[in-house]
Amino acid sequence: MPAGRDRICARCTEVLPWNDTYCDRCGQPLAARSAVPCADCQRRPPVYSRARAPLRYEFPVDVALKKLKYRGHTLYAPAFAELMLPLLAGDFADSDALVPVPLHRWRQARRGFNQATEICRTLARSSGLPLYDDAIRCRRTASQSGLSAAERRRNLQGAFSAGRRFASLRPLIVDDVITTGTTCTQLAKALLGAGAEEVGVLAVAHATRP
């Protein structure tokens, strides 16, 4: 998909599953855009202010992100970050720091990199925003894949720590995929507890919830 190191060719751009209609609060794909929060947000409002993703988690995006995460194809990170830049400049123009979702140290050691950090590096270079990497995943958790929404919440309860108190008031969490929003919710709670006033979420893709 990338043409060169950090570009997506025009042909691929045309066929990507763009997330053009979504919930204004959580960013999940919807059949039509609406100013009214989706049913999930009305039932359980997110602690973060808003979430956005330029793409839907569908083919070929799902395949490319799995190659990035599990097979070390890090050339996809700057390519996808480039697609996120318009949302960063628009919906999150008031953000003052980028926070990649951290991996547990054992998982990062085994994988050799954190895909969210790789994406963040391009966003930081292009935007000039600082990359805040003091947040940690302080508890080793099971993979979220295959878990129900309730199981995901239990699995990640208290899994993150924002470390020392930080100066950022409006940090932006950056991840590869939003599925149920549980990971971002738990990290947002840690950031709010460390002094943030408002937390946003930006990901490459958002899955469609059943």
Task: Explain what you see.
This protein has one domain (10-19, 47-206): Rossmann fold (3-Layer(aba) Sandwich). It has 210 residues and is of the alpha/beta class. The chain contains eight helices and seven strands, in the order ααββααβααβαββαβ. The chain starts with 9 loop residues before the first helix and ends with a strand. It has helices at residues 10-15, 39-43, 61-71, 76-90, 105-111, 115-127, 149-156, 182-193, and strands spanning 50-52, 55-56, 97-100, 136-137, 160-161, 171-178, 200-206.
How would you summarize the topology of this molecule?
Layout (H helix, E strand, L loop, with lengths): L9 H6 L23 H5 L6 E3 L2 E2 L4 H11 L4 H15 L6 E4 L4 H7 L3 H13 L8 E2 L11 H8 L3 E2 L9 E8 L3 H12 L6 E7 L4
Parallel strand pairs: 1-7, 2-7, 3-6, 6-7
Antiparallel strand pairs: 4-5
Helix pairs in contact: 4-6
